[in-house]
Request: fold
Amino acid sequence: MGEAKKILIADDSDSIRSLLEMILTAELHEVTQVPDGREALLYLKDHTPDLIILDITMPFIDGLEVCSRIKRISRFKATPVILLTAHTDEDTKKKADLVGADVLVHKPLSGKNFRTTILEMLEKREFLKAKLTQA
Reply:
């Protein structure tokens, strides 16, 4: 895939963050983990990762709100956001669409499918970056 990509993971579950980091570092990505939405926003003040993975249900600020906030910031226009959830209802999907999430992934995660999703989102980022550069 080329150079290592910077990926932010925000999830209040230590085990989910560890699993995601294991999957992503195996692909040689550089991973930063935070335990909640507030920490994610603090990190994003000074960093622009290539991909952001947010759990929907987190303390302080949930993943939907974090996604909504960052999608309004121009430097994140090309940064895909993956929302993670254990909820499979239609309302959750609608909320994810409303805040501009690129993908909604249901827990429990499948490593193989999740790797494919990551690859697709990073390819989408490169396409969007090129398109924004031309504009």
Summary: The radius of gyration is 14 Å. The mean pLDDT is 89. The chain has one domain: 6-134.
